[in-house]
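Sample pair:
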Amino acid sequence: MKRIFVLYLLIGLCGAGCTRKVFMSERRELPDAAVAAASVAKIDSLLGYSFQWTFGRKRIGLIPEMRGELAGKVSVPDRIYISGSWKTGDVIEKIQAYSIEGKEYTFDAESKVWKRGKGSSYPDPFEHLKLVLSFGEFTFIKVDIQNKTECYLFSFKPNVYFLDPIESTEPEGLLWVAIQSGIPVRVKVKAKKNLINWNMVLSDINTFASLSVPFRSLFFRVHDIAEDDIAVIVERCVFLGYGKPDRVQKNGDAVFSIKAESISDTFLTAILKKGDVQVFVGTWPKDP
């Protein structure tokens, strides 16, 4: 009986020791402010993401109430789709717009057409995200779960002068950093008495390459065109950024369809002009 008891005791001690060893190996080193700063720096390297963005301000003295509820996509560089609503004081504006390389396109609900405006007049979520995080001063709080993703949660000092220009709300920022990728997945700002708020959640990170305005289809017809010339026109449309056009052949003619704001004389000249394309291959900057 004594031998059996000793054997059980040894097994028990081994089990406890092994369990402790496994537990200790799974413990992580707590992240410091450098982890958060490195995560913020990664924002500039993102190729694209979807966002859900809300922000607001209660009336503070003579400063009017503001509220925004926006969503959309960002594709770097300089391509943004944004939709939702924006309220300042008693004025509410519905937003559905693309900003493509500094050109703004808004949807006209009456004509069902995307129309180009003069520059961008809507908030840029990419720049706002970096602005809010720009003061830094990150402090680790805990490991947290955000949208089924394990994250490090940090507090920080937010830059929210655009919401609180008189600095009266004592705001606090929270940053969720995905542990596996090191990319920010959520940023939130809260303040005393909920006088201001700011919240952005990122998703679909680096899962799409570009954004284009969903223009209506426009058509142009080319008479008596050979099959080889049809292939050249298709290649030129793709090269100029219009994508591969749809086409239908009728009685020796070809009808092409592209999605574009308009079909200009310059476009038709570039697509239909005759001649060869010359390509010079060299080593820059040695060869001209």
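The first strand starts at residue 48 and ends at 57.
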